[in-house]
Amino acid sequence: MTEAAKVKPTSSISRIWIIPILVIIIGGWMVYYQWKNQGPLITIEIHSATGIEVNKTPIKVRDLEIGQVKKITLKPDLEGVLVTARIDANAAHLLTENTDFWVVAPRISFSEVSGLNTLLSGSYIAMSADDTGAEKLHFTALERPPVTPPGTPGLHVILRSDDEFAYKPGDPIIYKGFKVGEFEDAEFNIEERVVYYDAFIESPYHKLITKNTRFWDVSGVKLLLESSGVKVETGSLETLLANGITFGVPDGVPTGQQVDNNTQFTIYEDVSSASNARFKLAAEYLLLIDESVRGLTVGAPVEYRGIEIGHVTAINSFPAVEGNILEQDYPIPVIINIYPGKVRQPDNQQGLKAIQQTIRNWLKKDLRATLRMGNVLTGGLYVDLQHVSNPEGDSQIQTINGYEVIPTVSNEFTQLTQKADAILDKINQLPLLEMVDNVQSAVEDMKLAAQSVETASDDFDVLIADIDAKQLNQNLNQVLVSLDSLLQNYSDGGLSKSEIKETVDAMQETMRNLQPLLLKLNQAPNSLIFNDSNSSGLEPKAKR
């Protein structure tokens, strides 16, 4: 008997499917994990995609890679490209409104050399590390890397200039020879026609910036021909090669309190302009110059007793008087100002009124203005206010176009010129032609006298030539022989000593007797020929 077969049901699912299922589960978990932990996608507007490649160009923060470029497309307006990048989740908190992006590539300019390490590794997109502010996923890249590295401690300031200064990002800010900051950016305001610069002062030098700090230009070398002489100004070696500025607190001004970020300052032309900027009020006056103003410049000092109290603000810049400069008697208008702060008055309306009242009182008496030469080399002039004894003109104060007029007197150079002209006039009045004729006549007479002397000299030479020198020598020899014989005779006893003495005494007595006769001949040589009737009165009378 056969046994009945046992039928067992087969499995509906093969064990071989376990492996694919596990792969699917693991793959799904990995996709979920990747999706869960991946960072956001951002878009960056860049002017050009030079050096940027998809899935190769990284995004770095402080040289740490935190993302990668995934896509590059043109902007709809064709004025740039849009770079799409994936940022790691652990860096997503850095995507804020204060975050900046820029392309790091080799860059060589006059003021900087940067990005040379990308010559081998290639360009990359740098990102600043700033987690403050609201979240942001669309950015516009900077055209160039920021001059100041992100996170650098210090102070950001805004500098304003309406002069012809041109500073570039990277130009230095100098303090006492040390580089303490740099220019970061520049923007020209068309409406105000003023240039605004973003600058950064590094720590700890940012503590030097206070409310009373002044900035001024020290670019290159400045050769100034001022009324006081030649002045050369220069900064450091960096400012010789590129533009730069410096800063400080003017003398006599308190340091002041420190300022906050983005405080605005003005860049002045030089240290003098920066120092004078503290004087807000000034009394203005008008000078009418009747002589040449060559050598007088805008900014020339106004002095009183050798102390600078103001400066010249304008020369012939407005129609202060009627007429034109081509007229002979046209006075050249010059405007000056006087600072109350420079004469130890408060820099307010009270100090201004005190200055104006003092000047009025002096104008009614003897205050006058004159142009003086400050330096012979440069020929620069300055305005000197002085008290003149017995001044000419009316004592009433004259006002033209709202300006009080300070009367002027001639300067020293003009006075010297006038004296020189007077001397020349006197010289012109001299009878020079007659003097020349007399001099010519005297010269002719001198020539005749010289000829006569020459003729006499020739005659004398002839006379000397006529003298028989040999005969003269023979006579001299005879005299010497006779003298020798006399002495020999004396030595031999020819004449005694007493006899010679008696002979000498007799000769002396004879000479004494001849003295009155010689004196008479000396006083009146003709007395031996002509009888003088008055001579009897001179004869001494004998005593009775």
From TrEMBL:
<keyword id="KW-1003">Cell membrane</keyword>
<dbReference type="InterPro" id="IPR003399">
    <property type="entry name" value="Mce/MlaD"/>
</dbReference>
<keyword id="KW-0812">Transmembrane</keyword>
<feature type="transmembrane region" description="Helical">
    <location>
        <begin position="16"/>
        <end position="35"/>
    </location>
</feature>
<keyword id="KW-0472">Membrane</keyword>
<dbReference type="InterPro" id="IPR051800">
    <property type="entry name" value="PqiA-PqiB_transport"/>
</dbReference>
<dbReference type="GO" id="GO:0005886">
    <property type="term" value="C:plasma membrane"/>
</dbReference>
<keyword id="KW-0997">Cell inner membrane</keyword>
<keyword id="KW-1133">Transmembrane helix</keyword>
<feature type="domain" description="Mce/MlaD">
    <location>
        <begin position="39"/>
        <end position="128"/>
    </location>
</feature>
<protein>
    <submittedName>
        <fullName>Intermembrane transport protein PqiB</fullName>
    </submittedName>
</protein>
<feature type="domain" description="Mce/MlaD">
    <location>
        <begin position="292"/>
        <end position="386"/>
    </location>
</feature>
<dbReference type="Pfam" id="PF02470">
    <property type="entry name" value="MlaD"/>
</dbReference>
